[in-house]
Batch of 3 targets.
Target 1
Amino acid sequence: MCAELLSTDSTAGLPAYQQIARHFASEIRRGALRAGARLPAIRSLAAQLGLHRDTVALAYEQLSDQGWVEAQVGRGTFVRAKGLLAATIAEPGAALPGDPGSSVGSVPDGDVELAPQVEELISLGNTRPRYATGEDVVALHKLIPDPRFYPIEDFRACMNDVMTEDGPSLFSYAAPEGDPRLRRALASRFGAQGIAGSAAQLVLCHGASQGISLALRLFLSPGDQVAVEVPTYANVLSACAGLGITAAPVPMDAEGPDPEALDRLLAKPDVKAFYTIPSFHNPLGTSTSLARRRVLLEIARDRAVPIIEDGFEMDLRFRGSEIPSLAALDTSGIVVLLFSFSKSLFPGIRVGSISARGRALEGLVALKHATDLSDALPTQVALARFLESGAYDRHLATIRAMLRARHDAMDQALGDFMPAGTSWTRPEGGYQLWVELPFDLDTRDLLPDAARAGVLFSPGTLFMPDARPSRAMRLTVSCAEEDEIRRGVAALGDVASHSGAALHGTGRAGGMHL
Amino acid sequence: MCAELLSTDSTAGLPAYQQIARHFASEIRRGALRAGARLPAIRSLAAQLGLHRDTVALAYEQLSDQGWVEAQVGRGTFVRAKGLLAATIAEPGAALPGDPGSSVGSVPDGDVELAPQVEELISLGNTRPRYATGEDVVALHKLIPDPRFYPIEDFRACMNDVMTEDGPSLFSYAAPEGDPRLRRALASRFGAQGIAGSAAQLVLCHGASQGISLALRLFLSPGDQVAVEVPTYANVLSACAGLGITAAPVPMDAEGPDPEALDRLLAKPDVKAFYTIPSFHNPLGTSTSLARRRVLLEIARDRAVPIIEDGFEMDLRFRGSEIPSLAALDTSGIVVLLFSFSKSLFPGIRVGSISARGRALEGLVALKHATDLSDALPTQVALARFLESGAYDRHLATIRAMLRARHDAMDQALGDFMPAGTSWTRPEGGYQLWVELPFDLDTRDLLPDAARAGVLFSPGTLFMPDARPSRAMRLTVSCAEEDEIRRGVAALGDVASHSGAALHGTGRAGGMHL
């Protein structure tokens, strides 16, 4: 029931708890669940769906608010009698059951107009697949560091120490640019990677995701265009949609973004920046060559168009030799570098940084202040302490080794199980890689079969600026160990082969003879 | 030297550390500080300026990066010999001394175009006064809860507990709407204040300041207008500028915003929302009457224009009886309510919430996700624990009593020391009040004299959508105890009276006979 529960079209795009609430509301409406019937225990349903118990609790609370069910202390949650339900619904202006986010009490949803960019965002969200990650499903779609590796105890100790030592100053407003200690620690790490710039040029932000929003707003107005790689990070497309910005596609070749295409784009007056992920590209997993990086910088400098470099996995190289970042190669001060701890440590503390110069730096500080004043000091200072203690470097060594082993297992499994003609990338860092099937199909169509077969992936179309169908998919090694990876890819190979066979009468067999 | 150091026009609008760096750079340039001269010790200069030591350290580091000074271990920071300096500066592409945010190494500031809204923000920032809050200055300009009251130990314990108990799930991504526990705790508090709505309708955000940005983006596109009160919260004007939104003024009378003026504005198609602070208005300190609140809701409902209600101090009533919030009175679901812990607890954790319904709720979740994915879970969960423990309510009782005493002292002092004809508001909650002088002057012009006399305030012009001059000023009781308030207002009365005398040959004497 879980898979269908979290993937019904009618609820796609809604928060998980609302999808759950709607599912049960409709089950009750159509009589599948009768008065007095007991809903699954919160704990077991949560485990079944791979969700936090509070999410399910929230869904049940909403159903109760709406009069569908009632909680009986110590016994569980039960479907209410029709009469009771009717009575509840009949209250003046009472919320309609199953209404997304509908209210308790007597207030209807207001009839107000949303900004067109927001309407755009909502419909964009509705096109995203919803995943039900049950216990037994191999999650090759997740780009979240493996929670099994989080150095929580070290971080907890740092947080506890700084809260004990720093006192009130830790709980007041930070400067918009953030805590000087963390900025200095980051600047010296960047310096060691050849990136010139003092702590004064670093603005801390709310993960690289806020960094993307701020960097886009720094250079672009609604109606402007930003050049992006094809494929590119899915959420940068959401950020653009939310800001009324258009993403202009730059094709990728083996070396990185195509220079001619980029130059043609940057020549256009309304293309105001170039967003790129040169190291451990998302979703490709590849890295732009050193020679190509120099060419890209030349083009941007000649066109006087800034480059937004997303270094979200720059600390995660596990093989091969370092390629200097664009920020390190930049001699004209046009690169804005985004950094994040979300993939190299854990995402939950929401800390990232943006490096900029001169007017761009001034604008960034003003923009950060106007957007949310500043970020949370306790987290920043605890993280600075964590870095200074060496715990971050120790952690990096651990997960780099983990990444190497898992990518090797992935490469091996893809060779063993995918259909003949399948191609894939071999990253030297990060979590993600790109797999292209030899069949003319939209991998989005494989998702339901794959989920049933016990494996999940991200269909390539999610990463296309124009949402075009794609025969490729993004896989990650972040939340699956070697044996799980092998099991997941075997299942994926089956599904792909069968679809291939259905299309061309070939497939599995061919796949076996790689 | 501190006051002038942090208020030179040439550095206004720059971060404090850059103002400090620029000050010393120019002192060295003009020979006032010669080679070998020792800069003030970081600790003492920081104390003198009322800044954190790291801010001064950052300034010295920038000066060192730029070749002006060198740190000698254990001895201090010294001005470098001209030769050395020249050599440093002469390096290819070396940063120019005193350049705001200029880089170390060999990278110049890039020549890139910023978005016009960002240029607007920068110039807006440059018009803001810079304050040097030395030890002896009474800070009646600060709207930051008094650090002496922060319940740090209770919060530290909650943070430590949840980090110990919750494990990895606490350090992963939250849902865009935030932690269900904190949302439930907030929803039940709101419910107790008559605000209908379940936890499902609450989206947690990064302080009410991010709430303002998100709520504006939810309803307005660049070029649209938002109706705001005159005067209004200064940072909402920055938020508008950064989003390319125009603030349309609604005059205030004794009851609140003027209904006719509001109706005329909301009739315009490009006025897409009304931003209001009905309780403990910032900067006025007054509250909109119950009758007027109902009228405002009617107008907004008839015009189908949403109301953004800023409840940033709604938990801080210390006198008089509760007036239901617009969200509590709303029967048509058009009110979006902003809440924040920044003033009722402490700002450093950056937690606030937005309540919305239906499509607005859906849009809000999509917008939050596209902006920064989600907020930090550890802080949200620790805060939920803090609320459940009763520590928040205990804290509210303490600071409400503190606010009552300080406002009484303020009211008394204003009567004793301000010139005849001065009028001021008598808030029933919150930190701020509004003082209007009987003279035809711009209170901005009083600031330097006031700073010299040992008191700081916020000139009224800061809160005017059109930045028009104002004879009023905002005072706060947040960071001054009763005796400090009395001392500060006495000094303020002197300064005001002398300016009044200069203008009209009246003043102090009259002020004494109130």
Target 2
Amino acid sequence: MLLPTLRQAVLEANLELVRRGLVLYTFGNASGISREEGLVAIKPSGVPYETMSAADIVVTDLNGQVMEGTLRPSSDLATHLEIYSHFPDAGGVAHTHSEFATAWAQARRPIPCFGTTHADYFNGPVPVTADLTPAEIASDYEKNTGVAICRLFDRSGKSHIPAALVAGHAPFCWGSTPADAAHNAVILESVARMACYTVSIAPQAMPLARELHDKHFLRKHGSTAYYGQPQNPK
Amino acid sequence: MLLPTLRQAVLEANLELVRRGLVLYTFGNASGISREEGLVAIKPSGVPYETMSAADIVVTDLNGQVMEGTLRPSSDLATHLEIYSHFPDAGGVAHTHSEFATAWAQARRPIPCFGTTHADYFNGPVPVTADLTPAEIASDYEKNTGVAICRLFDRSGKSHIPAALVAGHAPFCWGSTPADAAHNAVILESVARMACYTVSIAPQAMPLARELHDKHFLRKHGSTAYYGQPQNPK
Amino acid sequence: MLLPTLRQAVLEANLELVRRGLVLYTFGNASGISREEGLVAIKPSGVPYETMSAADIVVTDLNGQVMEGTLRPSSDLATHLEIYSHFPDAGGVAHTHSEFATAWAQARRPIPCFGTTHADYFNGPVPVTADLTPAEIASDYEKNTGVAICRLFDRSGKSHIPAALVAGHAPFCWGSTPADAAHNAVILESVARMACYTVSIAPQAMPLARELHDKHFLRKHGSTAYYGQPQNPK
Amino acid sequence: MLLPTLRQAVLEANLELVRRGLVLYTFGNASGISREEGLVAIKPSGVPYETMSAADIVVTDLNGQVMEGTLRPSSDLATHLEIYSHFPDAGGVAHTHSEFATAWAQARRPIPCFGTTHADYFNGPVPVTADLTPAEIASDYEKNTGVAICRLFDRSGKSHIPAALVAGHAPFCWGSTPADAAHNAVILESVARMACYTVSIAPQAMPLARELHDKHFLRKHGSTAYYGQPQNPK
């Protein structure tokens, strides 16, 4: 995706987070990457969504240097860049403080895969990072947050679980496009909510059997997928 | 109910699920059956509700062969067909991932009949299926899901409890029409929500006494019903 | 309040219950009494709120005999009549299946007075009825429900706690007018919700000290009240 | 801020509390102070928000004597005045019965700082007051409520935690302006909600490490802040 399409897509993804009730005031941010151009487009820091336009979206290079735009980029930019660097198939990143996913992050518990809704999107529990060390907090905090996220995944370059919880903070999600990243953030919140209710109803609830987990993930993903319409890749 | 009335009723039932907040994105699906014509009408797979019209509803025969429509039917079609086959009085089926009913399904706990709201609609606890075996998951998964649901009920052909929870998945509901199935799905979610709060307030809460349960079910159902207006069969 | 003012007030009270999210479909009903005329106006049974008009409100005498209207009165009429008979200062009654108050009723736990919001309206815990006996269920069920409610209160004729939970069923509230009864039903639901969260945060939470409880109740009620404006009795 | 700007700002802050779902009926009130003029503007007691205009806002001196307006000021005025007296940097105060913050107040538990959302706004747990004595309740109750709040903080005159929970009652928040106080009330409710979910998921959840807590608070506050845009002090 090239600018200015990317810029518009990033605006849309940010507004989707608002429409779905995932953000309060200016919390949360979505970005997108143009790998061809070596550019990232991201929400400006602390700007109200109501008045945000595509022109407010900040464009940086892959080191976070601002290339276009007069506003400061989101303070979480360095975390986004780290995720893009780790996952070559990520085209968008979304970060929110959506309340149930954040509660799991605060509880420092991975979200178990209790059901097929989870399995449709995340091929395993949604993991939670280790706590950052005081040194990692003191310097390059946002970059180190990204490093802690990426450490949870192997170097395969595939995002079978396009989400992670940052301990004591909140979720980050990614996807093939900014819209896909925002979509995954919405699903994650629903999955987090249902998992919270599940442990409330049955504190010892067991995760889904591996066979069923795979069945559902593969119904929606990969060459044997049969969910949706043929022209619809998802 | 004959086509095209059925087709319109199925569209309406799907939209009712959205209006009542039971579905997220394209999750969930409702269908209806014309037993006279041997046809089932069902939501297409993975199509957004906002733009869906009666023409998008897929019509199949009782073996799931598409008879009308250019879109793929819901991937859960085979489960619907199994329910129609088991319950001769079912005219509609609704499947959602509504969050509280899904939480009970994920917890693998039947929803106890804690109160008269439940008893008004479901003449007993809402049961949860056994886990499918790896073989049942590997082949004919959706049909086997339907078989697991029907195994919970006897062969009386009467639906005194027009709902079941699929373990680790979500609820399926049915009713005399597509609208009635969707209505039952809405009630089930409210009942599931109240049951979750009830066990949170009193983990050892006891189900309703049998006499009161029967009283409420029979206030609304059968020849001695006295709820609603005479011209209103429900 | 005389007909037809009463009829309109009863319609309004029923609609307020809908607006505040206390009722699902046709659940719930509000009524009002004209003690001068010996008449009660109540919602018809099982009629949708969207199309209800003042003309649909059913008028009965104090024995439940229909005096005006062509529809059946709410099946809970006999419970309302019993409440009017017990509390001479009750001018309206509201019954809902609002989800948190119902959860307490299902849990068979009185709602403790945990805070001043509760104390502002209910001068003590909101009590829960004893279970009805099989004989009380078998005959005159709705009247016996009212008797069970009134048994919770003494014969003083004053409604310092204008609400009760029917075990395994749902709340009934009352007030000086139909609007006041509906208002109390809305407050009760909020109080029930906060009490549920309170026991979730602190299972051993203690009720409010008696002094603070009285202080708040008397800030709003009686001759020493100083909340609100002088011309506003509440 | 001078009258009549203050009056308008107080109206706006009160309406923001309504828009964000923090108040039911007439519960809750926001005020603002003009330290230059020695005046406080506050919501009138028990007046519906729907019809409230800037002209209804009551203006008092710092002893609570009404200087402008024909309505009674909020019955919580004396609590507001005590907060203004204690915190020289407070320009606005907001009081609500928002349901999750109130639940923590009712549970008499400080809200632990479980995550960065909390740390962004409150530089420590949100404290809960001691119970008032019967004598403090009997006379000057509202003033003594303010005294109990202020006792939780030292005399530094800085509001690093611009919120407190009154035991068995509800939260009070403050800020540099009426809008800022209302904003903090909205954040507090979200933080209280997430903390409730957190202890539900992990009853033994640990608060955020001090280093991370400071990092987030200082990202948004003080001379080294780098969140938001340079022209935006918050």
Target 3
Amino acid sequence: MDAVKGIVPPMATPLLDDDTLDLEGIENLIEHMINGGVNGIFILGTTGEGPSLSHTLRTALIRHVCERARGRVPILAGLIESSFKEAVVMAEAARESGVHAVVITPPFYFNIEQDELYGFVRQLIREISLPAYLYNNPALTGVYYEPETAARLLNLPEVLGIKDSSGNMVYFNQLLNLSGLPGVTFLVGPEQLLLESLSIGGTGGVPGGANLFPRWYVNIYDAAMKGDLEKARSYHEKVMKLSETVYSGKGYGSGNVINGIKYVLKAMNICNDYSARPLLKVSGEKAEMIDGFLNSVGNDNGE
Amino acid sequence: MDAVKGIVPPMATPLLDDDTLDLEGIENLIEHMINGGVNGIFILGTTGEGPSLSHTLRTALIRHVCERARGRVPILAGLIESSFKEAVVMAEAARESGVHAVVITPPFYFNIEQDELYGFVRQLIREISLPAYLYNNPALTGVYYEPETAARLLNLPEVLGIKDSSGNMVYFNQLLNLSGLPGVTFLVGPEQLLLESLSIGGTGGVPGGANLFPRWYVNIYDAAMKGDLEKARSYHEKVMKLSETVYSGKGYGSGNVINGIKYVLKAMNICNDYSARPLLKVSGEKAEMIDGFLNSVGNDNGE
Amino acid sequence: MDAVKGIVPPMATPLLDDDTLDLEGIENLIEHMINGGVNGIFILGTTGEGPSLSHTLRTALIRHVCERARGRVPILAGLIESSFKEAVVMAEAARESGVHAVVITPPFYFNIEQDELYGFVRQLIREISLPAYLYNNPALTGVYYEPETAARLLNLPEVLGIKDSSGNMVYFNQLLNLSGLPGVTFLVGPEQLLLESLSIGGTGGVPGGANLFPRWYVNIYDAAMKGDLEKARSYHEKVMKLSETVYSGKGYGSGNVINGIKYVLKAMNICNDYSARPLLKVSGEKAEMIDGFLNSVGNDNGE
Amino acid sequence: MDAVKGIVPPMATPLLDDDTLDLEGIENLIEHMINGGVNGIFILGTTGEGPSLSHTLRTALIRHVCERARGRVPILAGLIESSFKEAVVMAEAARESGVHAVVITPPFYFNIEQDELYGFVRQLIREISLPAYLYNNPALTGVYYEPETAARLLNLPEVLGIKDSSGNMVYFNQLLNLSGLPGVTFLVGPEQLLLESLSIGGTGGVPGGANLFPRWYVNIYDAAMKGDLEKARSYHEKVMKLSETVYSGKGYGSGNVINGIKYVLKAMNICNDYSARPLLKVSGEKAEMIDGFLNSVGNDNGE
């Protein structure tokens, strides 16, 4: 299987309440993103509130998404698990439903060391039957895939690439400069860094905003690949404005990104705006700020 | 139900591998602690590797421990969950097995705010049928129960107390000085702070070392309650030596505490020394250091 | 020279503006603290805004304080310097004025390692002609005196003790359990921890609040030494109330402690309430909270 | 005065010991950088060990550098001061010697808030007679110029630009997207990020490695400005190799950058390798790694 390149949105999870899927919303959102030209869909990541959902619900979500996507784009499923055994079980459910690859986050309760991280992920890859991506998100998991650890794992034939949400571009540069990794993909998390990561050799991104305006991000990627820096920058500026309003609040990585995305999804009539506990809905002042942003955007969806 | 006071060990979880309980070890360990005079047993906490175990295994552990303990001491069960729904399901399993109370850790993936924390825990207490303790461990969960949030929750009749593993004694003092909380218990996590917490009004502790030498900790508690500071200090010094060897490595809160405890449990023929992934066994140099410590202790188990 | 034990207030620095001493205020404050029974005075520490003052002003302050104190209590002077050379020069000025000992903070710009810290402090002690105390304040300097480093330095005959403002009582316990350090003094910084540090073997404290109510802190120390825990706790509770109002705002270690102390010093007609830049004066809501606290205290100064 | 664009090395400070300048080394280093085509020289920054030097030595350094540079490139001088008064005095010394602008770091002892930061810097700009740049380095100072604070200061006519060493490219993007700041320059600190910062609109950099191979960095800048991405990337890869060897050790921002630069400067016969306390010289393994790197570079100085 080839590693995915381009734009792979971390799909938000439409919910009716903490333990009930919004099935119609799921279908709408999938169509919206595929129509926007995305190159894959990543479910049950941070933006997908994976860790907040019961394992039963996660399994149901995987099945529904695979059914609705009908193979038009590859589906990647997050394994954000503190328990090794739960990760194995979830990976098997993903395989049965037709997921293309899993995305492995370090176990995130204990403050672990690199040998513990390597041992966990190496064994997990042995015990599952799907290709894997690594997912680096130290602000939430408390541990980095240090470059040496990343290199050892990225050299395994089962590992297709890495998604880096650290926001640390010195680190991302170090990954890109790891030697002997042909075919591996390097996807950047924070969408504010999409353009610059592509300019130094990154191969794609996992931008939360591609739930909302997928074509903007696809345009940045396509323009950067063609060397049309002016076009790429014009969409980069839209993304900066989106991030400063829709994600505003208490810092990237917290629930502000998620509740902002859900607020806009509701405004677009795509799905409900419910976030699973502990996250809360967007409140007054931020709602107004987002409304203002959406007004300024108008019909400019990048088509 | 009365709030527990005194020494409540966070029971280590004897394992044969990542997903198999060491049933004989569990029985041995329970008898060892109860014979040592402990005032309760806390299972599925950090030391119990709760987050590393599958939910099926956690449920089995709860049942086995309740059966073996036979009501001789109250059993407290940790709810260290990132998913609200999983927490509710686990609490119901705990109730069915005869657990006396649950111990609620904040959801630990997202970096959440106090209103999100309060909403999660408040609703959880509504939906479950057991009394609850709060468990503050910001180094692992990324969020504090700020004094004001703690006060609101500790005022609920269902909430019996708080276990604080922050190691921040300014904070612990603030908790003790919250007004209007009769009958609430204040348990300190780090055993190096047990004596001093009792000297300023704390009502007990959750020391990992009480898996190993339960009577030492019971002696500190009893001596402090009687005002026999000299005796209390003599056992405090033993605890300091234990912590500097058995827990050595990479800092409190990481796997060093757990793998050190398991190493000693095996040396005492109580149970296996396997820790669930991602944690690793004690390695060479630390093993020698612990052996030296155990030699120096000899038969001094505090009886 | 004997190491100081008991209560050593970190004297606030009365100022008319950023570079002018309030000489009358200095005299008032010294008399106020000595009348309150303190065992020494520590100038140019964090509470004394040492790093905010020009070296010329620091030299003038040292001279004035030594003259006014007239040898009634030992004077300790902080060396909070990022430059080795400046530290040497300041120590010489201190010696000339009659200071009894200097208090050495790690250099605080670079993120340094233990060997760099040890080399800096070891050489500084060689080049100066006064006894020294170590001052551990990692929240502000970014580096700990790790127990092993502290032990090496505390074994030097020129080093009389350590002041620990980390607030980490596990660490403070480790210091107390260092072996072979007769005569060394262990002073705790945060006054909320004064009572408990004394209960486990600490030998004194450096409480900011002793600028205001010196007798309260002296009473805690004296009562704890005599084993009168009830009396000690009654003053501990006053200290907790003081710290929750006078130091409120943005966390211990920031300017809230300092501007709160200066606000009360002005209310007591001891000196001006000016803090050197970058610190700001107490603002509206906090001022009201402190006024309420002072009303509740009335004339209860601990005599 | 126009804001500087392009490559402005943070000049290392050649020293014979903690308080003696290496005057010949200073002259050599200035010629080396100017011959390499740099657009300015920034002295007394982090790489220049500003905070480790006495104020007398800093003043002497400023004078020597201005004399030797003879106006061929603008000289910028760092004000890394915890004391407002010392900053004012140092700025006056800089003006007298012919420095073109000062570079203002936040006061770095107390953990300060934005209003305290703004007040300090705003008043400093009022009291000095030179244009200013802001210098953001939160890892060492403990405080950010938050975008709103930066915007207020960058709008002052006396403020020419900002140097950002945070390594946080989301933040750097936010700065670039601040509105209404014509003529302001945005210089990036970490040289690993030079290329990508230029690709999104940055106007220059302050790379430590430009003490060693100034032409490499000038080539990146010139190539990026002409849109020759291929040439820019080829020098970017050299810079990544330099940073992974010369700066290896304990993380950017610590002394590893500085002692690595000094080791190479000595190998190039430009100056001594002494670093002021607390920093230490390069030790065995790192020395070998750097030797290997220098061998691989050979005569490739970018000309």
